[in-house]
Specification:
mainly alpha; 53% helix; 11 helices; globular; single chain
Length: 212
Amino acid sequence: MPLRVLVLACTASFTFLGFSLSAQDVDKGKSLYQNCMACHSAEGHGNQLLRAPAIAGLDAAYLETQLTHFKHGIRGGVAADETGLLMRPMTKLLADEAAIKDVSAFIATLTPVVPEETLEGGDAAKGQAAYMVCLACHGPDAGGNVALKAPSLQYMNDWYMLAQLHKFKEGIRGTNPKDIGGMQMRPMSMTLADEQAMKDVIAYIRSISPKG
């Protein structure tokens, strides 16, 4: 490649990178996160008693989407979604899209930990077959797919995954036409016949996730 072309390409890359970084302010996000700490903890590791999941380990793009959905009632706008209804007023504290980007960027810097296993009776071997429909979006290692805005499941609480699968299956999540990712998840949840099948697939996800 000619030197002039290479220089122009590098300059364009750094310009794009500079734009990406300037679009989010991690320090501002850290300040905004003070409103989230009471439930999700300072480290983003969540609190089961408050039904607040761990959010450390989630990528910024996914967080931005979910916060935006909560803020505009795309998620948490159904009366049966008790925890979603609790999240909605919290997102109202984020004034605009820039604030959502900032806090998401900060959360993405938090270090995840392996969550405590709370569910019993799941069969990982059976869950492996059920996970085949999850592979395309969440990946063979449950690490997610940023391009598809499919979150990593590696550090997600088992109790939270169970609750969300129930919500998708029961139509509490994934029925708003503006929630594209949710609408894709709902038919996936329908492939799980019952709670036992949900526990099985969660057990498999935990088996392929980091252990420490």
